[in-house]
Write a structure and sequence with these properties.
single chain; alpha/beta; Rossmann fold; 6-stranded parallel beta sheet; 16% strand; globular
Length: 184
């Protein structure tokens, strides 16, 4: 179980999630380019159903530079996200918003790519009830943890039994997978 200093998780909290490696399997050295490439991680749908009962808002923030590199289109990404949302909904879960940073690193002039907090600020601008001190970022990379800390969120690192060189001050809690996370 995970408990934060702000008290137990309740309906005033927001959950931010990375996509690749957290919700679905990450393709090493490549991108999920089509729906056929998208495979939910074991237990992810059940975890999302449980989280939907706890959190007021659940938001995906994902770097998707495959679009910026021309390996896929925005339409391809939209199809993947719509099919993902449909299956999450059918499983009793929900995602309230998806923010995708599609430019390559060199062209991210608006600071949208994690670890920058542009996607968090955009979410907060669109929903003023988002309080970053009552938000959690779950991710599987250093940039996910930096994103959470840069925005003033709590962080949970998905380590998948792989050694990572991530400074401990970026991680408030960790788990092997999304399915392993339990909140009070």
């Amino acid at each position: 179980m995970i408990f934060f200093n702000n008290g137990p998780i309740d309906s005033t909290w927001t959950l931010f999630l990375d996509r690749d490696g957290v919700i679905n399997r990450q393709i090493p050295d490549d991108y999920v380019r089509t729906w056929d490439d998208f495979i939910f991680n074991e237990g992810a749908l059940h975890a999302l159903q449980q989280f939907a009962q706890m959190f007021n808002r659940i938001i995906i923030v994902t770097n998707q530079q495959g679009v910026g590199k021309g390996l896929m289109t925005e339409a391809d990404l939209d199809i993947i996200h719509q099919k993902m949302l449909d299956l999450i909904s059918k499983a009793g879960g929900r995602i309230d918003a998806i923010y995708a940073a599609t430019p390559i690193v060199a062209l991210d002039d608006k600071g949208m790519r994690k670890p920058n907090i542009g996607m968090a600020l955009q979410a907060q601008q669109e929903n003023s009830k988002i309080d970053f001190t009552k938000s959690i970022m779950i991710g599987d990379s250093k940039s996910d943890m930096e994103f959470g800390k840069n925005a003033g969120m709590h962080t949970i690192f998905i380590h998948k039994n792989k050694p990572h060189q991530i400074p401990e001050n970026l991680i408030d809690a960790q788990a092997e997978s999304l399915a392993q996370i339990r909140f009070l």
